[in-house]
Design a protein that fits this description.
α3 packs parallel to α4, α4 crosses α11 and α7 packs antiparallel against α8. The chain folds into 2 domains: 264 residues, 3-Layer(aba) Sandwich (Aminopeptidase); 114 residues, 2-Layer Sandwich (Alpha-Beta Plaits). The protein is 36% helix and 26% strand. With 388 residues, it is of the alpha/beta class.
């Protein structure tokens, strides 16, 4: 596997960086220590420019190539952890109760730092590279916040690339696809209002528990019978709350959950049908239902030309047979989608081998893939913007 020799030489450094970040996890936009650690390393590497405080704790670092004028390519890594209690002691276990790097953002940051160290040393490319260290990927929309604060225009970023580890796939393999790769992730709440009554006299009330249950069943028919079977959608009800006493029919009930779609037309259909199903079922029983639908991350859509380019770089590192450009879309979500809405680019998964899956309390990033990911980041820059 032809990773860059110089990057292989500081593999232990990347491992040390990653494990430090792992032991000191931070959530959302509050990545103050992580951001400071990143900045300290970038200064050691001698990058040309560092801007901090973007989207509160985000960082952008610029490295100027020595191969002449050219455009700017963006490389992104996420920095935030998850509110999960780590359950095993690996020698660098989280020092913070209830917080851990259960998605590998510690590894993504270490890989991009490794690429930064190499690129600052060699500068064997034209134009510039913008290294984007982003907070708040796990539900906070940090990618959108950084875009809204103008990083794409300010630094003249022409294309942007990201990488995510993928436990369960063979070490060093790459997985992606042009077009929709990951789903839009929305949330909803349905408030049901009826009429409270004594549980022994149900005829005097309007039972919101029964109405909520029927709404829950009715919503499942949207995916089963309203959406095109060849277009994916997921509608999951994850919370139902109502009542506080065994002998009282509650006046209100509330359902909540998530909707995942890969197509904007399907997304709009699901929203419209949810409104109709909930309100009409409630009305049939004399109750009222109100839908509060919150749009979350949009679909992560890879640009075709940039996806093929990024896959070609991966083939040069891992070999032809180690790169799959026809993976099935995933119903998870990723806020790199906002960056891909602003600029052409691509998002890839890098196989991390066995072990616990993402968002699991036993998950741990495989440090053996760090030189592979760092080499891919570097070769994206050097191939997209060759010196001379």
């Amino acid at each position: 596997m032809p990773i860059i020799n110089r990057i292989a030489e500081f593999h232990d450094d990347m491992k040390t960086w990653r494990r430090h970040i792992h032991a000191n996890p931070e959530l959302g936009y509050d990545c103050h220590e992580t951001s400071a650690f990143v900045v300290e390393r970038l200064k050691e590497f001698g990058v040309d420019e560092i801007e901090t405080g973007i989207a509160k704790t985000g960082v952008v670092a610029i490295i100027q190539g020595q191969g002449g004028d050219g455009p700017t390519v963006g490389l992104r890594a996420d920095m935030d952890a998850l509110p999960i209690q780590e359950v095993h002691d690996n020698g660098y276990k989280s020092k913070v109760d209830g917080k851990m790097h259960a998605c590998g953002h510690d590894g993504h940051t270490a890989m991009l730092l490794g690429a930064a160290k190499y690129l600052a040393e060699t500068r064997n490319f034209a134009g510039r590279v913008a290294l984007i260290f982003q907070p708040a990927e796990e539900g906070g929309g940090g990618g959108l916040a950084m875009c809204d604060e103008g990083i794409m225009d300010k630094y003249g970023i022409g294309q942007v690339y990201g990488l995510h580890n993928h436990p369960g796939e063979a070490v060093g393999t790459f997985h992606t696809r042009p077009g929709p790769l990951m789903a839009a992730a929305d949330t909803f709440t349905i408030a049901v209002t009826g009429k409270g009554a004594h549980a022994a006299m149900p005829h005097q009330g309007i039972d919101t528990v029964l109405v909520a249950c029927q709404i829950a069943q009715g919503l499942q028919m949207i995916v089963a019978r309203n959406t095109d079977p060849l277009k994916s959608a997921v509608l999951s009800i994850t919370t139902i709350h109502s009542g506080s006493a065994h002998n009282v029919i509650p006046e209100t009930a509330e359902l909540g959950g998530t909707v995942r779609t890969l197509d904007e037309e399907v997304r709009e259909l699901v929203i419209a049908r949810m409104e109709e199903v909930a309100s009409n079922i409630a009305a049939a029983h004399g109750a009222k239902a109100t839908l509060d639908y919150q749009r979350g991350y949009p679909v992560t859509v890879n640009h075709p030309a940039e996806t093929e380019f990024a896959a070609g770089v991966a083939r040069a590192i891992s070999g032809e047979d180690a790169v799959d450009t026809d993976v099935a879309p995933m119903m998870g979500a990723e806020d790199f989608s906002y960056m891909l809405e602003r600029r052409p680019g691509a998002y890839l998964f890098l196989g991390g081998g066995g072990g616990a899956g993402l968002h699991h309390p036993e998950y741990d990033f495989n440090d053996e893939i760090s030189p592979i990911g760092a080499s891919w980041f570097v070769k994206v820059v050097e191939t997209a913007q060759p010196a001379g």
